[in-house]
Amino acid sequence: ALDMSFHEFRLRKDPECPVCGDRPTVTELIDYDGFCGVPRPAERPAFRERSAAEVAAMQARGEEFLLLDVREPEEWEAARIEGARLVPLGVLGERIAELEAWRARPIVAQCRSGGRSAKACALLVEHGFTDVSNLAGGIEAWALTVDPRVARGGSE
After folding, report:
1. CA of 119: how far to CAs of 3, 92, 99, in Å?
2. Whole-number Å distance between alpha carbons of 131 and 121
3. Which of 5, 27, 77, 156 has the smallest CB count inside 10 Å?
4. In angstroms, rounded to a whole number, what is the distance separating the alpha carbons of residues 97 and 107?
5. CB 141 within 8 A of CB 150
């Protein structure tokens, strides 16, 4: 049986309390999200995060999407996800026209662990691409959860 007994405590009011004291200085709630650095909805990136399993399932279903690898060529040579297209983050801005056919079609960006690809997603959204996702955890997550044959490692 569950014991649902309660105890009540009576506490004396602290006259110096900044909220309930004799001369309160805290009289309204703060902007908690702002105080903690949580971006407002309009400031949040207009792209979603997809897990490695989710992207693998998209591939397995034969969904048409561009898997955009934004790592460096030497990282690409060491390991890559089957079907990915390499456009390193450093040159993505100048090569964005190459992706024009994907402006309104699904793009999933990936890097080693998700940092650079998040920047790539933001850049794509900034250039008017409308269906952009980030592979959460990058090729590291892919190797750990989808395909252990894919080599891990490299720099972010």
Report:
1. 53, 10, 16
2. 10
3. 5
4. 14
5. no
Radius of gyration for the chain, computed over Cα atoms and rounded to the nearest angstrom: 24
DSSP 29: -
For 121, residues 6+ apart whose C-beta sits below 8 A from its C-beta are 45, 47, 109, 132, 133, 134
- Sheet of 107-110, strand order: 48-50, 132-135, 107-110, 66-69, 85-86
Query: Is 54 buried (19+), middle (13-18) or exposed (0-12) by CB count in 10 A?
Result: middle
| pLDDT averages per 10-residue partition of the chain, 156 residues | 79 85 82 66 74 95 97 94 96 96 97 95 94 95 90 54
Quick one: tokens of 95? 């090569």
The one-letter amino acid code at 153 reads G
Nearest to 118 by CA among 101, 137, 131, 105: 137
Q: Could you say which DSSP state residue 40 is in? A: P
d(CA 48, CA 96): 20
Contact yes or no for 111/138 (Cβ under 8 A): yes
35: its two tokens: 């105080």
134 in Cβ contact with 41 (< 8 Å): no
